[in-house]
Design goal:
The chain is about 50% helix and about 15% strand. It is α+β, with helices and mostly antiparallel strands and about 325 residues long. Helix 3 (about 35-50) packs across helix 5, helix 7 crosses helix 9 (about 170-190) and helix 8 (about 160-165) packs across helix 9 (about 170-190).
């Protein structure tokens, strides 16, 4: 092989490596947008399919393959988000974003770019915060365009001029979309509780649940706490949110009584925060995520749909 041919081969390998190296970042982006790891993986697969469907000449003409992949992945996600609203209206019971175990490769931002949120750093959504269950649930209340503008700008650091090119809107429109989304986040989410403190409250919650101690559970739950379960119509789960600390405490102790020691409750990291995993004979059958404010548990999300527990059961 000539030196010239070798050089072209090396450039080709380097280009392929650069394309493949974008995959985890794209999955991180798509997961935040869609709230589903399975759908995120499908969106990224579709993105790569479109890349490899181009001729080598077309690929070489792309100035920034990473930017091209991000644009296509975002547009694929936008299409999925628009159709998801219809699908979720037909969903049996409550729909909760897919919970993820402790990992670092899906918490990744734009290479070399810090999150470029608004001027006030207190309003900025960090990478870790942007995968919390509370944040993902709040995203569900937004329009697809709001969600894209917020995630691309505040989390992944894209300027509004680039977001405009991706979404087909003006930079000013994208700025307003992100601003309205940010206001919704501020209105919905309390100030984040320190990780160690939340872990302590969840540990106490586990002990009280194991002991079927209703009084202890009531002390840990905010009076207006809410528990939302997601069985997807596949397994038994409360079809509507359970409101109030007493109702939640009695619901959970009833579960413990019916399980009669057949279930194991484990402390685990769920979407970057302290949570619990329920196992039956070593297999995860439920994942619990929590939101905490003022030293009380305010929200509990119990995911039981087996399709959403793949990351917890894969060996």
């Amino acid at each position: 092989m000539t030196d010239h041919a070798t050089s072209r081969h090396d450039q080709s390998d380097a280009g392929l490596d650069a394309i493949i190296s974008e995959r985890q970042r794209l999955i991180g982006l798509a997961y935040r947008l869609l709230g589903s790891l399975a759908e995120a993986e499908d969106a990224v697969q579709e993105t790569y399919t479109r890349w490899y469907a181009m001729s080598r000449r077309q690929q070489d003409a792309v100035d920034s393959p990473g930017a091209w992949l991000t644009t296509v992945a975002t547009r694929v996600c936008l299409d999925l988000l628009r159709s998801a609203r219809v699908r979720r209206e037909r969903y049996t019971g409550e729909w909760i974003p897919e919970p993820l175990p402790e990992r670092t490769d899906w918490i990744s931002g734009r290479p070399g770019v810090a999150a470029a949120g608004p001027a006030d750093p207190a309003d900025r959504v960090t990478l870790d915060e942007s995968v919390s269950m509370a944040f993902l649930v709040t995203l569900e209340s937004m329009t697809p365009a709001q969600r894209v503008a917020l995630i691309l700008h505040d989390v992944f650091g894209y300027p509004f001029a680039e977001i405009a090119g991706i979404t087909g809107r003006t930079p000013a429109a994208c700025r307003e979309l992100a601003s309205s989304a940010r206001r919704r986040v501020r209105a919905s989410l309390p100030r984040a509780t320190p990780t160690a403190h939340q872990a302590g409250l969840v540990r106490e919650f586990k002990r009280a649940w194991d002991a079927q101690d209703i009084d202890a559970l009531l002390r840990l739950l905010a009076p207006g706490a809410t528990l939302t379960a997601d069985g997807g119509g596949v397994v038994a789960a409360a079809l509507h949110p359970i409101e109030g600390s007493e109702g939640i405490a009695r619901y959970l102790t009833d579960l413990a009584v019916r399980a009669a020691g057949a279930l194991t409750v484990l402390e685990r990291t769920v979407n970057g925060r302290a949570g619990l995993v329920i196992e039956h004979e070593g297999v995860a059958v439920a994942v619990y995520a929590f939101d905490v404010a003022d030293d009380r548990i305010t929200r509990i999300w119990a995911v039981r749909n087996p399709a959403k527990l793949r990351p917890w059961t894969a060996g």
